[in-house]
Amino acid sequence: QVQLVESGGGLVQAGGSLRLSCAASGRTFRRIGMGWFRQAPGKEREFVAAITWNGGSTNYADSVKGRFAISRDNAKNTVYLQMNSVKPEDTAIYYCAAETSYGGRYLYTRDSNYDYWGQGTQVTVSS
Question: What single string gives the DSSP state of each residue in 38-95?
């Protein structure tokens, strides 16, 4: 079992920055691949970013590439999403997710590949 708790969401103006955190507990964090997803009102949940167990590889959705950065601190059992140059279309509930089936060695963009999910944190970008 893995428990995930997101924090750091809020209201930010377009062009601003925000950093989301996701604290994990319940299992060796070093063997877990992590991802961030988001869901806007009336839309399906979509992939945002993923990171392997050691932070050596990352992957991003085209819509956030060059603006967002995913990172992790295994000593703190925490994964981060740094959001820069945010846009109104980034408004959504952001979820972190954990992949435990393959030891965090691969990057996955499909939510079906993730085993555990946080409760989400709301990000609202005003224009």
Answer: EE-TTS--EEEEEE-TTSS-EEE-TTTTTTEEEEEETTTTEEEEEE-S--GGG-EEEE
| Nearest of 24, 69, 63 to residue 46 by alpha carbon | 63
Task: Quickly tell me which residue has 């970013």 as its tokens.
Answer: 49
Question: Distance (Å, rounded) from C-alpha 2 to C-alpha 17?
Answer: 28
What b/e sequence results for 84-105 when a residue is b if at least 16 CB atoms lie within 10 Å of its CB, and e otherwise? eebeeebbbbbbbbbbbeeebe
pLDDT tens track for 78-102: 999 999 999 999 999 999 999 998 8
Pairing of strands 46-51, 58-60: antiparallel
Q: How far is CA 2 from the centre of its chain?
A: 15
Q: Tell me the average pLDDT across 9-17.
A: 98
Closest to 20 in 3D by CA, of 7, 33, 39, 37: 7
Nearest of 2, 6, 8 to residue 30 by alpha carbon: 2
The DSSP bridge partners found for residue 88 are none
Which residue bears the tokens 């963009």? 109
